[in-house]
Write a structure and sequence with these properties.
Number of helices: 5
Number of strands: 0
Strand content: under 5%
Order of helices and strands: HHHHH
Largest sheet: none
Bound molecules: iron/sulfur cluster
CATH topology of the largest domain: Alpha-Beta Plaits
Structural class: mainly alpha
Number of domains: 2
CATH architecture of the largest domain: 2-Layer Sandwich
Helix content: 40-55%
Length: 94
C-alpha cells in the first residue's frame, strides 16, 4: 500500500512516473553514483550532431543523450538499450 500511495503521490507532484524509483527507492543511492561514473555509457560526438533530435524522441528514459557531459539530463537513468545509436543519422552516438 505504501508503494502505491507514495508512488502515485510522487508521480503527481514531480510529474514523473518514475519518481518513486528516483527519490525513494534505497537501491538508487548505490546505483546513481555507479551509473554516473560508469565507463560503459553512450557517448555523443557533439561535433557530428546535426540536432535532429531523433535520439531524444526514441529514448524511453528521457536522457539528454545528444550531450556528452555526464551531467546531461537524466543521464544516470540510461538503461543502455542503444536504441538512440540506431536512430542517429550521422552516427554521432556510440
Ligand atoms: S541507450 Fe537507450 S536509454 Fe540510454 S540514452 Fe540511448 S535510448 Fe536512452
Ligand atoms: S540523433 Fe544524432 S544527430 Fe540527431 S540529435 Fe541525436 S545525436 Fe544529434
Amino acid at each position: 500500500a505504501f508503494y502505491y500511495i507514495a508512488g502515485i503521490a510522487l508521480a503527481y507532484i514531480f510529474k514523473d512516473n518514475r519518481a518513486f524509483c528516483k527519490y525513494l527507492c534505497p537501491i538508487t543511492v548505490f546505483l546513481k553514483p555507479m551509473s554516473y561514473y560508469s565507463l560503459l555509457r553512450v557517448h555523443c560526438d557533439e561535433s557530428k550532431c546535426v540536432h535532429c533530435n531523433k535520439c531524444l524522441k526514441v529514448c524511453q528514459m528521457n536522457v539528454e543523450v545528444n550531450k556528452e557531459s555526464r551531467k546531461r539530463k537524466n543521464g544516470t537513468d540510461c538503461i543502455l538499450c542503444y536504441e538512440c545509436t540506431k536512430e542517429c543519422p550521422v552516427k554521432a552516438l556510440h
